[in-house]
Design a protein that fits this description.
mainly beta; 0% helix; elongated
C-alpha cells in the first residue's frame, strides 16, 4: 500500500550553480513507513542551463542529504513523493512529518 504525489519545483534567482537537498523532520512518525522522492523532469530554463541527478528513488531521512543539482534558473521541475509500507498493522493513528527541500547556491 502506498500514497503518491506529483508536484512542481521552481528554482529562480540563482547565482549560477545550485544544489537541492532533501530531509524529513518527524513530529510523530512510525519508522516502518518510508517516504521516497525522485525527479521526473528537467523543467525548463534559459540557454546553458543544466540539471543532473535525482532521477532514482531516494529514501528521505531525518539526516537529509544531496538530491540533485543544476545551473541557472529552472521552472516546472516535476518531483514525485511516495509514502510506502502503510499498513493496518500500524494501528489507527495520525503520523506527522515534514519534508524539507532546500536549495543552495554553489
Amino acid at each position: 500500500n502506498y500514497w503518491s504525489l506529483i508536484f512542481n519545483m521552481d528554482i529562480t534567482g540563482t547565482l549560477g550553480n545550485w544544489q537541492v537537498d532533501v530531509a524529513r523532520s518527524d513530529t510523530d512518525w512510525n519508522t516502518n513507513i518510508t517516504i521516497s522522492t525522485r525527479r521526473l523532469t528537467d523543467g525548463t530554463g534559459p540557454g546553458g542551463g543544466t540539471i543532473a541527478g535525482g532521477t532514482t528513488w531516494l529514501a528521505v531521512s531525518t539526516t537529509g542529504g544531496y538530491f540533485f543539482n543544476g545551473k541557472k534558473d529552472r521552472t516546472g521541475i516535476n518531483l514525485r513523493l511516495t509514502v510506502t509500507n502503510i499498513s493496518l498493522l500500524l494501528g489507527s493513528k495520525f503520523y506527522t512529518t515534514t519534508i524539507i527541500y532546500t536549495v543552495y547556491d554553489n
